[in-house]
From TrEMBL:
Transmembrane segments: none annotated. One of its GO terms (molecular function) is phosphatidylserine decarboxylase activity. The record marks 181-182 as: Cleavage (non-hydrolytic). Catalyzes the formation of phosphatidylethanolamine (PtdEtn) from phosphatidylserine (PtdSer). It comes from Chlorobium phaeovibrioides. Its EC number is 4.1.1.65. Heterodimer of a large membrane-associated beta subunit and a small pyruvoyl-containing alpha subunit. NCBIfam families: PRK05305.2-2, PRK05305.2-5. This is Phosphatidylserine decarboxylase proenzyme.
Length: 219
């Protein structure tokens, strides 16, 4: 299954790859092999990058689900204008090999949606969360406020986010993607505890990354 968020890009990349493969047939053998091999590898990578596997939402209440596949880069205490004092920010780095479709972390209503133009530094650079191209999203759920940001990286040049303000959303729902290597920062408010550690691998729509303090340890 391939994501509709990348359909136009995938069609263009596939056309370039197939065109190059056909062109390689006209070249001398010593040139045709490397050119054709490179085109085939590029086509396979493009298909792999835009894959969109189904995911199973974990059961339970008082949980926050990972919005992205990747590796947890850092977990830090912070004060945030949307979630308030005593918050924690969890940063997930998405390599080009990860699934790049993003998913909603909690059921609620979108009450913040703001795009920021910016640079395209390496996504694992801590400054990228403030300086890079990014989309901020805030969700309110039963009095709880959750904030997360799609951050474009060095290779990621386009953020896809079709959400609308005041749109009701459901945990695990696909809501967009970041094309070609990126990062997602998620800010949880006071009273919620991270369920992952630095270096942990996450799967969007499946991995529990935070839990309400009163339910922590009850799995």
């Amino acid at each position: 299954m391939f994501t509709p968020y990348g359909r136009s890009t995938l069609v263009k990349l596939a056309a370039v790859s197939v065109g190059t493969l056909l062109f390689s047939i006209l070249l001398p053998l010593q040139a045709a092999i490397p050119v054709g091999s490179a085109a085939a590898i590029f086509l396979i990578f493009s298909l792999w990058f835009f894959r969109d596997p189904n995911r199973s939402l974990p059961p339970g209440k008082g949980i926050v689900i990972a919005p992205a596949d990747g590796t947890v880069m850092s977990i830090k205490a912070c004060s945030h204008p949307f979630t308030g004092n005593g918050s924690s920010i969890i940063s997930i780095f998405m390599s080009p090999l990860n699934v790049h479709v993003n998913r909603i972390p909690v059921t609620g209503t979108v009450t913040l949606l703001q795009h920021h133009p910016g640079s395209f530094s390496m996504a694992f650079d801590e400054k990228s969360g403030e300086e890079n191209e990014r989309m901020e999203i805030g969700i309110e759920s039963n009095g709880m406020k959750l904030h997360f940001t799609q951050v474009a990286g060095f290779l990621a040049r386009r953020i896809v986010c079709p959400l609308s303000l005041n749109e009701p959303v459901t945990a695990g729902k696909r809501f967009g993607m970041i094309k070609f290597g990126s990062r997602v920062d998620i800010v949880i408010p006071a009273g919620w505890l991270p369920e992952v550690e630095r270096g942990a691998k996450t799967r969007a729509g499946e991995t529990i990354i935070a839990r309400l303090a009163t339910t922590a340890g009850n799995g």
